[in-house]
Structures are given as C-alpha cells and as structure tokens.
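[step 3/7] fold_predict: job queued, chain A
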Amino acid sequence: MKIEIHSNLNSCKRDLSPLKNNNPFQDPQFFKLCENSKIVGPGTGWTPVYFLAIEENEVKGFLPCYIKNDSYGEFIFDWAWADLYQRHGIPYYPKLICALPFTPVNVSKIIANNVETEKALLAAYDSLLTGNKALSSSHFLFATKEQDSLLNELGHFSRKTIQYHFDVIYKDFNDFLQNLKARKRKQVKKERQAIKDSDIEIKVLESLTPTQVSEVYALYLTTIDKKYSQAYLNERFFELMESEYSKNTVVIAAFKAERMIAMSYFIKSETTLYGMYWGVYPEEEIQYLHFELSYYQGIEYCMRHGLKLFEAGAQGEQKLLRGFRPVEILSSHKLSIEPIHEAIEKHVTQENKIMQEQMGHLANHLPYKK
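[step 4/7] structure written:
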C-alpha cells in the first residue's frame, strides 16, 4: 500500500467514488464541495492536505487534513498554546490539523476499508509533521477512541472536551416528557406552549427553493453579527449543499406572515441528526424560540424518522437541562518541540482529570427520573 498526498480534489485524477458514503461528513465529495464553495483553499486559512491510501491502483482510504495559519473554526480551542509560543518568540503557525472545516461533528474523519489502511493513513499524517520543520504541531480533532489510541502509539497525547448528545430511545415526544422529573417536564411544556401561543408557524423544510437558500444564509449571518464573529461560510456553500446533498439537509424554520424569521439548519446521516447553524432576525426573537427550533423540533424529527442520535452542536450546558447527556470528545495532539510537548501534555493530563470530574457532575444534573 502506498500513500499519496493531494492539495486539491478537483485536480486529483483518482476515482474516489468507491468511497462515497451516505453521511456527507464521511464522503470525499463533501470536501470537494468545501473547495468549490471556496470556504477552504487560498485566502481562507485552510490549505487542504488529502491523504489517499492506494492499493492495486485503487483508492482504499481517505484522510482529509489542513495546514492552518490560525485557530478559527476548529471548536477544540488551542489559543492558549498559541499564546505560549508567541510569548517565547516561537511561531505556532502553520500547524497541521485533521478536522471538518467549521463543523463540530463527532464522526470519524478517516474513510477506510480496514484497520491496516487506517494505520497507514495515520502514520503518513504523523510523518508529515515530523518531516516538515515548518509545522509546529498536529491536531487530530474529534477522534474516535480507536484513532486516539493509534495516535497515542505515534507519540500524540489525548485531550478531552465535552459535547451534549440526545439518545433517541423514546417512541415520541410525550414518552420523552414522561421520563423527565416533574419540574423539568413542566418547564419544557411551558417553553413549547409559549411558541404555540405565538403568531409563529413552524415548518420542516427538506428541500429548499433558491429563495429559501438565500433566506437561510441571511439568517445564518444574523448569528455571526450577534456574536461579532466571522462568517466562515458563504451563500455558495448553502447552494451546493442543496444541489448535492438535499436528501441530507433539513431546515426547521419559523415563519411570521409567510416570512422566514428564524431557522435551524441540520445535516443528517442514516442514523444521526447534526445540528449545525441557527439564526433569527433580532427584531423577531422571542423567548424559547431557539430551544424550539434547535432542540425540541430536532428531537421530534429524529423520533419521526427513526434516527438514533441527535448531536446539537458545540458547547451549551442549556442542552443538559433539555435531556442532552454530556459526552466525552477526544482529540489527539503532538507538538514538534519536545519540551513544549511535554509541558502541554502535563497540563492537559490535569485538565482531563478535571473534565472527567465535570462529566460526572453534569450527569447528576440531567432532568430524567432516577
């Protein structure tokens, strides 16, 4: 088996179709879509590095990585590490990462047909860091336990963070409510009733017109403006998602007088619903609308369509009180300068212990009956 490295999937002559997956985040075409929408590539801070495992002249594995000149859009934060480097006059950028651009999804980034192929791809990933003195470090984000273990063998250390996921084990929303503590059940009912009593109509959109794509993008920008953040995505990204992955996208939108005033944007696989983006026009925002569109409607959608898991995005302890359990998220890191690697690993080891304790504390605050 040999490993090839490509910087652009559009110019790659290899046939990637055998690796096509029903989960967009595990489909090479999604990474080509990111290139074509220009959310990665020149001027974005995300320079693609794609590893292809080749056997008998066929592609058997795929690992998408990027060389980064900043730490934006990653959701596993290393700004303190970058600051440490800066204070010592050492460049932290460029660095190597394996991640889904701007997407905090806990899914395997490696597309491979067996463990040996996976090992070969990870070895090539590690070799790029050790063989390129310009790279300060490598960061494999949202790793599976198996990938994290393999990377540990290659000298990477593990870091733990937390997300909140909903296990869809209830037959309907009422069944879910009946499993909540009385006070929590009353609060959820109150929140949902407030939206029902408003003049808002909620629609589930499983296909979008060009006008609706523009409306979704405009609402995405409202959240960016509210947080004084940077718009990582552009309208072309949403257009291409609709044309290439329409069967995998769901928009749950709020309408007032036939005008879309708020929306939550989801991507789904055969088993999982991923909460991606939320937006509302500031003058139309009402209490509990975010919870309704981003959480409760998503839960009901999963129940109706037989999905087993709902990942509602990054951070947000408010999800805990609405039935989303805390989940350990793994990432694997390696820094080229050994004394700095050892110092940060020591700090992260202590951080992981605190995170583990926090997981137990959070689990005690879940709203379910004992």
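[step 5/7] annotate
The mean pLDDT is 95.
Residues 2-162+327-363 form a domain with the Aminopeptidase fold (CATH 3.40.630.30).
exit 0
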